[in-house]
Amino acid sequence: MARSSPKQNPVTATGVHFGLIGHVTPNELHRKMGEGEFYNGFMNRFLWTVTRRERSLPDPPAYEGAIVRAHRKLWSDAIRAGRDIKRVTRDEEATAVWHEVYEGLHRGNEQRPGLTAEVCARAHVLVIKLSLIFAALDGSHTITAAHQDAALAKSIHLALVARRVVAGVR
User: Fold this and answer.
1) At what angle do helices 123-137 and 66-83 cross, to 10 degrees?
2) Using an 8 Å Cβ cutoff, are 120 and 159 in contact?
3) pLDDT over 70 for what percent of the chain?
4) Which of 51, 68, 72, 168 is least crowded, fewest Cβ atoms below 10 Å from its Cβ?
């Protein structure tokens, strides 16, 4: 249950999920996380990614004008279309691929034991959620092979990142 703290018009929400975007250095991650956080399921609830700064940009260009309008239109159109979606299914091609990859995603821990496997333990759930997001952004009530392939690519990236995340864990 989540509650807001304002005294006027307090809000209570039940059955909620929270999203989180954060930044952490590898050294900080390793100082704060021990093996317990990997094995107890905490670490596999995150969509891990690794980035590298290509250049120093203390004063990035302003985010304004035509690009803001274009992004606003894309997001507004996706939200508007998403409101009309009542049921989402996979198309035939996505279903066939899903049946081929599901066990490997779900049982990946058996194939790569250890901390890396623990970080990837919910890869099958991640693929479903990302596929849904990609379909919704397209305003589609059908998960296509393209939506699912993009999500599967992210799960491969997750496995590669997981190896870096666990390197040096105490």
Assistant:
1) 110
2) yes
3) 89
4) 51
C-beta of residue 152 within 8 angstroms of C-beta of residue 145? no
Domain residue limits, the chain: 23-50+65-166
Q: Give the C-alpha separation, 46 to 19, whole Å.
A: 9
pLDDT tens-digit profile of 79-130? 888 888 889 999 999 999 999 999 888 776 566 667 788 888 888 999 999 9
CA dihedral 155, 159, 160, 164 (to 10 degrees): 130
The two three-digit tokens of residue 138, written as one number: 């397209």
Task: Give, as one character, the DSSP assignment of residue 43.
Answer: G
Three-state SS at 154: helix
Q: CB-side exposure of 63: number of CA atoms within 13 Å?
A: 5
The alpha carbon dihedral of 110, 28, 42, 130 has a sign of negative
Highest mean pLDDT out of 19-28, 90-99, 107-116, 158-167: 90-99
Contacts of 117 (CB under 8 A, 6+ apart): 108, 109, 111
Banded pLDDT at 64 (limits 50, 70, 90): very high
CA distance 15 to 39: 25
